[in-house]
Every structure is written in C-alpha cells, then in structure tokens.
From TrEMBL:
One of its GO terms (molecular function) is NADP binding. It is an enzyme of class 1 (oxidoreductase). Mg(2+) 2 binds at residues 191, 227, 231. This is Ketol-acid reductoisomerase (NADP(+)). Mg(2+) 1 binds at residues 191, 195. It catalyses: (2R,3R)-2,3-dihydroxy-3-methylpentanoate + NADP(+) = (S)-2-ethyl-2-hydroxy-3-oxobutanoate + NADPH + H(+); (2R)-2,3-dihydroxy-3-methylbutanoate + NADP(+) = (2S)-2-acetolactate + NADPH + H(+). Its cofactor is Mg(2+). Coiled coil: none annotated.
Amino acid sequence: MAKLHYESDADLSLIRGERIAILGYGSQGHAHAQNLRDSGADVRVGLPEGSRSRARAEADGFQVMAPAEACAWARAIMVLTPDTGQAKLYDEAIAPGLAPGKTLMFAHGFNVRYGLIKAPEGVDVSMVAPKGPGHRVREVFAAGGGVPALFAVHQDASGRARAFALAYAKGLGATRAGVLETTFTEETETDLFGEKAVLCGGVSALVQAGFQTLVEAGYQPEIAYFECFHELKLIVDLMYRGGLTYMRHSISDTAEYGDYTGGPQVINAASREAMKRILREIQDGTYAAAWIQENREGRTWFEAQRAEGRASAIEQVGRELRRAMPFLEPVDLLAPDPAKV
Ligand SMILES: NC(=O)C1=CN([C@@H]2O[C@H](COP(=O)(O)OP(=O)(O)OC[C@H]3O[C@@H](n4cnc5c(N)ncnc54)[C@H](OP(=O)(O)O)[C@@H]3O)[C@@H](O)[C@H]2O)C=CC1
Ligand SMILES: CC[C@](O)(C(C)=O)C(=O)O
Ligand SMILES: [Mg+2]
Ligand SMILES: [Mg+2]
C-alpha cells in the first residue's frame, strides 16, 4: 500500500509567518488563501487590475496586489489561475519575481507536465493538488476536516522542497484526510482522466442520458430529475462513508440486482475502450494540445457547450425543484444576478 502522510508527518512551523502569494482567487484560490491564513501563513493575493475576483478577496480581508508585485514580495508562489493562461502569466509576472531560494507551486501539473513552464535552476518547484473542488476544500476545512491531496516535487534546489510542500498541505487541511506523494506526470494524467471520463464528463453524461431516456419515454421530468440526478448524491454519500458495500447494504436487494445487471450493460466493452482512448490521448499530449488550441481560438466551442448545458431541460427542472429545498443551500448560477460564489 502507498505511504500516506497525516498530521504528524508535516511541520506547520515551515509555513507559519511565511510570505505566500496566492495567484488567483477562484475555486482553489479562495480556499488556499483562507485555509493557509487560518494556519498561520502571511498570505497575499495576486490578481490583475480589473479582475472580477478582487472585490471578493478584499472583502475576505486579503491584501490584493498585482501578480508581479505579489510574486516579488513572496517567498512561495502558488499558481491558482486557469491552466491555459498560466504560461503567459509565468512569462509576464512570475518569472521576473523568481530568485534562488523561492518556491513555485501548482495545484495541478498541467503546465509542467506538458513543458509550457520551465522554472530556472535555484528555484524549488512543487505541487499540492487537492483531490476535490475548491469550494469543498474551504468548507470541509472550516468544519474541522480536510480534503485529501497529492504532493510532488519537480525541482528541489533548497533541499527542503518536500518538507515545505507537506507543510503547505497541512496548512490546507489535507493531512487531516491523507496526502500521497506523486510526480507531476502521474498527477496530471490521472487528474485529467478522472475529470474527463468519470467525475465530470462521465457522471454528467450518465445523469443526462438517464434523465433524457425517461423524459423521452413520456415520464414526468420532475420524477426523472429526482430519480437520475437528486438521488445520486444520496447514493454517493453512502459510498463516500462506507464504500460500495455500505451503499449496497442500504439499497434494496432489487436495486442491488439492478446494479449488477444494469452496470455492465451501460459501462460495457465500448465504454471501457473509450476510457482507454481518453487515457492514451492524455498521455500522448493530444488532449492538452486540443484544449490549448481551443483557448487560442477564443473558446467558441467551449462557450457553446456551456450555454447549451445551462439551457438544458435537466438544469431548468432541477433549478425549480432545488428552490423548494432551502436546506440544500441551493446555489443558482442561472439567476439574472447570481450571488457571488
Ligand atoms: N477548481 C478546482 O477545484 C481545482 C482546480 N485545480 C487547479 O487549480 C488551478 C486554478 O483553477 P480554479 O481554481 O478552478 O480556477 P478558477 O477559474 O476558479 O479561478 C481562477 C482565478 O484566477 C484569476 N485569474 C485569471 N487570470 C489571472 C491572471 N493572469 N493573474 C492572476 N489571476 C488571474 C481569476 O480572476 P477573475 O475573477 O478575474 O477571472 C480567478 O480568481 C488550476 O491549475 C486547476 O487545474 C486543482 C484541483 C481542483
Ligand atoms: C474533478 C475536477 C478537478 O480535477 C477537481 C475539482 O479535482 C478540477 O480540475 O476542477
Ligand atoms: Mg482533480
Ligand atoms: Mg483537474
């Protein structure tokens, strides 16, 4: 079994009072900034003039600086901006602020794995990659828990890159859950695979196909939503706490029979072959190149998918049903003026 690192394996004193610049204040940025500040680090946030995130970071009590200024000030720099813009940000704002003894950090290995960012010798390069969405990284930490993370050292000029990455992971709350050592390559390839084939692409396509199958067959959309979407969390919560065994313990034996017979019909040889193809295209760089190209061309296709998803029947039905369940603390990004999240 792989070695997992917990609280006693990391030394929080390495980040206490340490000058850490968090570049970006989005999903991961707000969580890293707030968790590390709560853990004793001296955190400042780097955002461009005119960034939509500035008001929020300032409202949360952070000193916000231009990215280049933040990089010059910090001893450790964590890059939490969108992956496809990081190389430009590195050239323009990060590289000028790097000097021997500084640490450059990432939460995802994309730019290092695909050779888009190459830090100079003398600089430590490491990664702490939470295995969960940023909003949950903050919420779980604030509730006293943590989200697991991977860490990796790409360049260790100081001889203390590994200890610092582990301390950072502890400041983030990840050692409360378990932290695993990896490489930039392993993190990048498994993360891209997981989000594309299973967690985001796979699950979204599965629930939409189930919903559409029922609605097209004449069933009420609200029933299709509860059955194929809402209940998914209730089922996954059981898996999260006690594995497939606990989920199968809680469901009826009729449902369990459906699990064993239906699963292989939906996830069949063709689906497994598609997963292998997805993994090959991640490994050989085809997928990353396509995503970079999509951004260079203005993200037209990507934005069209986003708009189509927002307008879809499952999103419209779900939005209405969630409104009647305030205990879910529904987040309505389809509202004309959505609350900042
Ligand atoms: N989302 C997640 O949960 C996870 C993300 N990661 C990784 O974390 C990194 C950040 O992703 P994520 O949190 O999703 O990003 P988001 O899109 O949620 O947030 C990006 C933030 O960066 C800001 N920003 C954009 N351009 C610049 C720039 N040039 N300089 C400084 N700030 C900038 C944005 O500001 P503005 O508001 O102005 O756009 C925003 O605050 C990526 O490497 C991603 O792969 C890793 C694990 C999980
Ligand atoms: C699953 C998507 C993710 O990899 C994550 C939250 O871990 C991401 O890039 O957002
Ligand atoms: Mg991930
Ligand atoms: Mg990811």
